[in-house]
Each structure stands twice: as structure tokens, then as C-alpha cells.
Design goal:
95 residues, mainly alpha, 83% helix, membrane
Length: 95
């Protein structure tokens, strides 16, 4: 789940950055940007964020039963970028 969260995040950010060559959506044209963000970018970011929180919750739940500290830190490290990017997007949206 942590790896898929990171892959979805990277895919969504790359698709957002290169949306004009890939989909023909120009940056200044509001209806196409709204449709792209609402139908593709927001759901992919929500899925990546949900997977990130699920991984962190599961890691905390099984903290004592999993004995490998590298596995625990790797799972948390792969999940934190999606949560951080989504949180920064929400902060920029409302501030």
C-alpha cells in the first residue's frame, strides 16, 4: 500500500505538470482545468492520501508485533510524501 501510494502520487503530479502535452488542457482555461482537477487529480490525490493514512495506521497498530525496524520506517517514509503534498495543497487552497 505504501508503494502504491507513492506511485499514485508521482503519477498524479506528473500528469498535472504535463497536462497540456498529454491531454491538451491549457493552464489558463478554467473549465478544462476544473474538469481535470475534479475528475482526475483530486480522486488520485485522495486515494494516495487514504493509502498513506492506512499504512501509517497499520504500522502503528502492529508496531510491537513487527520486529524489523527498517520495514516500519520504510513504510512510514513511503507514506509521508502523499500526506505532506496533500496537506500543503489544502493549506495553499484555504490560506
Amino acid at each position: 500500500m505504501a508503494f502504491s501510494s507513492l506511485v499514485i502520487l508521482i503519477f498524479a503530479l506528473l500528469a498535472n505538470e504535463f497536462r497540456e502535452p498529454l491531454f491538451g488542457i491549457k493552464r489558463g482555461y478554467a473549465p478544462h482545468n476544473f474538469g481535470f482537477n475534479f475528475m482526475f487529480f483530486l480522486p488520485s490525490m485522495l486515494i494516495a492520501n487514504g493509502l498513506g493514512f492506512a499504512v501509517i495506521g497499520r504500522t502503528i497498530k502492529h508496531w510491537k508485533t513487527w520486529t524489523d525496524p527498517n520495514k516500519k520506517l520504510m513504510l512510514i517514509g513511503l507514506s509521508i510524501p502523499s500526506i505532506g503534498v496533500f496537506t500543503s495543497l489544502i493549506i495553499r487552497l484555504f490560506v
